[in-house]
Design a protein that fits this description.
By secondary structure, this protein is an all-alpha fold. It contains 21 helices and two strands. The chain has a domain of about 200 residues. It starts with a helix and ends in a 5-residue tail after the last helix.
Amino acid sequence: MLIHLPVLQVIIPLLAAPLCLFLTKPRLVWLFALIVSGLAFLISGLLLQQVMTSGTIIYDLGGWDAPWGIEYRIDRLNAFLLLIISSISTIVLIAADTSIRKEIPADHHVLFYILYLLSLAGMLGIVATGDAFNVFVFLEISSLSAYALIALGKDRRALWASYQYLIMGTIGATFILIGIGLMYQMTGTLNMEDLSKRLPEVSQTRTVFTAFAFLIVGICLKLAMFPLHLWLPNAYAYAPSIVTAFFAATATKVAIYLLIRFTITVFGLSFSFTHFPLQLLFVVLGLVGIFVASTVAIYQTNVKHLFAYSSIAQIGYMIVGFSMTTMAGMTATLLHLFNHALMKSALFLALGAVMYRIGTTKLTHFQGLGRQMPLTLAAIVIGGLSLIGVPLTVGFVSKWYLVMAAIENGWWPVAALILLGSLLAVVYVWRIVEMAYFKPALAGTETIKEAPLSFLIPIWTLILANIYFGIDTRLSVQVAQAASMSLFGVTP
């Protein structure tokens, strides 16, 4: 059974999704989805352990060897991503049964879990596959289910947010498909490993340059990198809380993975950063994204919108680390990818708990909430401190490695701007703290109670993880460094 783990990682949630139709009771469907996601988490843990000890795992589907057949290739990079996606999915699902009762009509509950498992399967498939066209197929599975999940939000603006994401996402997916098609035209293969060997022979052709440009733009659209981020704020703000918590921690991380995989593994570092001014472009857009998104976040009146713009800023940090084209920069990016998933899933789950109790996430309704929902608001404060990068939180670890990588690269002004960008996070986090702890409660809200245990357990699991991995960094740093070394071809 162990040799089939790579395909089981994807096939279990993919086959489980339609099986939800046979489970008519909402609680039974929720339990089934939770077990399926838990199995995916277990498999990803076993895969990471196996990869860290034995090296890359290659699994040929149907017994057809690559490049003729499709292979799943699990190395340190995608094993790390598989663990992040499946773990966050499982923790978030613990609160799903309680949350969607308030936010989604009862007759749509089964549909919610079907779409959720399809989205999970799609993301896992994107990361696990070693075939470029398979990436597109799984991207469509994940994206189409994401559009529908966002549209399930009870606010009518969720439909517009979903439509906006649909248009932008479709453009991005089309660009990616065109890029893959052009690469196939020039090399006659879709296997990523095979592409990395054949592309250098035709790397000076305009077709390959065009393919690369289409791929980068398409992935950056999916990534919501500034200024291609317009779909993200409304998608996060108006989607059901569980959907936001899941996507904020995983969807953009998968796109970061694709950016790394295609630029470094498939096209190669020298091609990607020599023939195109990518380094300058990514550094500038990453830094501008940090400051613009953080500034916009300060003026938001909806806390979901506030943290959505914060996510765009955090993507900027990852892009800056990636653009350094060094092992230290890549380690910082992968670390922040993991740490940001812990922060944002905790924060959006806590907002889901607030939504459950008061029916809104408008900042003005947070008045005095720190005294009425102390555990939930304490989680938001700790998550906010992690976003800022306060010591003993995962955010500090990310910023430390990112600043050190910039200094090692001789980029002192960039290091200073990274620290300055963190100060903007202080402002928008303080707005929430001020409203929750230093303002009197609104009239008629005296009866508001703390969130139920089904929310508090996953929220505080993630918050404690924020603190634990902020103190004991051995696991996260070791895996991020190992993945970075394998990307740059360095033997440990």
